[in-house]
Design goal:
Radius of gyration of chain A: 25 Å
Helix content of chain A: 10-25%
Structural class of chain A: alpha+beta
Number of helices of chain B: 8
Oligomer: heterodimer
Shape of chain A: globular
Largest sheet of chain B: 3 strands, mixed
Number of strands of chain A: 19
Number of helices of chain A: 9
Shape of chain B: globular
Largest sheet of chain A: 8 strands, antiparallel
Order of helices and strands of chain A: HHHEEHEEEEHHEEHEEEHEEEEHEEEE
Distance between the termini of chain B: 42 Å
Chain lengths: 404, 161
């Protein structure tokens, strides 16, 4: 029995005429029996509390909800509140769901230092040949203590083109212990189906620590090995299930901010969904480019010109809660270049979440946070190093025209 | 009445366009035709009572899918349903027509694996679309499909391909 049988079995099932007749009658009877809507009431000062709490390094959840289906017990009157307005077209907006905005802030070294950076290098993202990838994957497997089982286990998917999210060829292989490896271009290695992921993660961490050191440096008692730092990013599905990414990256507190950002993105590994992704160091620099200011990047977002899977029709009204700078290491990048990552919220998203979360979830526990990406290279240089970001098989570029 | 792009949808139109989707999902989710028919009817009645406005078809389908999965989940928990289980057993609710091991194996999967399998193999959604419908990242859908295939392979003792 396989998926074809499954399709044949269930795919051919259609409603019976008797069911259709009964349901139609029930629907017609239900017309005019509109249910009270279950909109949450947001405390008017939520936005102010938010900004204050984030600045102070903590998060206060002060939202309340009136549930018309709840028990009719006596309770202390709620504070005077203003119903959350639902913005036009809000149903078409998209954002991440969290219980606390710090779950998307991470541990980026640029936090609080954004204005110290005026220029940064941009790096190549080469498109390797199959032969190059095979050699690289064999080497990486050996470095991680894994043995590729058989050359015939390799599968190679060529690049689908320069301007596509499949720009990088992909090579996959299975190891003797069942672990599977997938090398994307030359920039990331996915490790999954490992019988002992914790052991692989520890080896990968050692790889991060020592791959940048020469044998002489490793043996020298005067050289202090680098340190690692961590960050956890967490979002929730409508079912309330958490999707957690645990990242480890090299961090030298004495290094320049430019070096710290480099390590944050390119000497990094992420544990997620029982798999591990190891990011590899990029190709040669194609030059150092001046950066637009953080204020200019925020103005670009406010005007509706930004990238990413999150979207709002009202960027001018959004409350920006956090801005950081990082290299974009998502798939399909023609160059690895710095981007501003802007976290923002909209007060009317509470109402959307109340509708979207599955039954059994307390929507007041959740909030929406949008993530907007704005290229950090000064606009007059963008032609030299074009930026791209993909989502759902398409370019994720939002433009002011979408807002009209 | 619910509206789509500002245009009201009639009950007949709703049933013609979305009846099969909700009907099949409800049968898959409850494990029987009898329960599935009740759940599917509840979903459509709830749609009329909620009177939502949908900007596009994706949102309408997402609403129906979410409402159906919710009701399937709460169906087994409802005291009424628990009380009536013996009766249901007594009348031996019929499985779907020509049901085989595959349908039962998918029905036995935990919901987080079952719905991606159903939406992909029966309704033909891509991983990215399922991610939008279920509110989780595309990669999460892909990994769940992968794990679901493994579980189905173990249950059915043959490759799920």
């Amino acid at each position: 029995m396989n998926s074809k049988d499954y399709r044949t079995t269930l795919g051919g099932v259609t409603p019976s005429p008797a069911w259709r007749e009964r349901t139609l009658a029930a629907m017609e009877q239900a017309q005019g029996q509109k249910r009270p809507s279950r909109k949450p009431l947001a405390i008017a000062a939520t936005a102010a509390v938010l900004a204050l709490a984030v600045t102070g390094g903590m998060w206060l959840s002060g939202r309340t909800e009136v549930d018309p289906d709840g028990p009719g017990v006596a309770r202390t009157p709620e504070p005077v509140v203003t119903p959350t307005p639902t913005a036009p077209q809000a149903w078409n907006e998209s954002f991440s769901i969290v219980t606390d905005p710090s779950q998307l802030m991470g541990n980026n070294p640029t936090a609080g230092h954004l204005y110290e950076l005026t220029e940064l290098p941009v790096y190549q993202n080469p498109i390797p040949t199959e032969r190059d990838q095979r050699a690289a994957l064999q080497g990486l497997a050996a470095d991680l203590g894994l043995t590729i089982a058989n050359i015939s286990d390799f599968t190679w998917r060529p690049s689908t083109g320069e301007d596509t999210m499949g720009r990088s060829p992909t090579l996959t292989a299975e190891c003797t212990d069942g672990t599977k490896l997938r090398l994307e271009g030359f920039y990331s290695l996915d490790i999954y189906d490992s019988p002992d992921l914790a052991a692989v993660a520890e080896t990968a961490r050692s790889y991060l620590l020592y791959s940048a050191m020469t044998p002489q440096e490793m043996l020298s008692s005067s050289i202090v090995p680098p340190q690692t730092s961590q960050e956890t990013l967490e979002t929730y599905a409508y079912t309330g299930e958490a999707d957690i990414t645990q990242a480890t990256f090299l961090l030298d507190p004495d290094a320049t901010l430019e070096e710290q950002i480099y390590s944050y993105n390119f000497q990094r590994m992420e544990l997620r969904n029982n798999g591990l992704t190891l990011y590899l160091q990029p190709g040669a620099s194609v030059g150092t480019f001046p950066l637009r200011s953080p204020d200019d990047a925020q103005a670009s977002f406010r005007a509706g010109d930004y990238w990413g899977s999150s979207f709002t029709y009202h960027p001018e009204d959004a409350q920006i809660i956090f801005v950081s700078l990082e290299y974009d290491i998502s798939m399909g990048q023609p160059y690895f270049q710095p981007v501003y990552r802007i976290l923002y919220i909209q007060d009317y998203w509470d109402g959307l979440i109340a509708d979207w979360m599955f039954d059994g979830m307390d929507p007041s526990s959740f909030m929406g946070v949008g993530v907007a990406y704005v290229p950090a290279i000064a606009p007059e240089y963008q032609d030299e190093v074009p930026y791209q970001r993909y989502f759902n098989d398409g370019l994720a570029h939002h433009t002011p025209e979408e807002l009209s | 009445m619910p509206t789509l792009n500002g245009n009201p949808l009639s009950c007949e139109e709703i049933l013609d366009r979305y009846g099969p989707l909700v009907y099949r999902m409800a049968i898959q989710g409850t494990g029987s035709v009898a329960d599935g028919e009740d759940v599917a009817q509840e979903v459509f009645v709830s749609l009329i009572q909620s009177d939502p406005r949908f900007a596009d078809e994706t949102h309408l389908k997402a609403w129906l899918i979410r409402a159906t999965t919710n009701r399937c989940k709460s169906w087994g928990r409802s005291p009424w349903h628990r009380r009536t289980v013996p009766l249901e057993e007594a009348r031996q609710a019929a499985p779907p027509p020509e049901a085989g091991g595959a349908w039962e194996a998918v029905a036995a999967l935990p919901p987080k694996y079952r719905w991606p399998v159903y939406l992909h193999y029966i309704e033909g959604y891509t991983a990215a679309e399922i991610g939008q419908l279920l509110g989780c990242p595309r990669n999460t859908v892909l990994s769940r499909l992968s794990r679901a295939r493994e579980k189905l392979k173990n249950t059915l003792k043959e490759e799920w391909a």
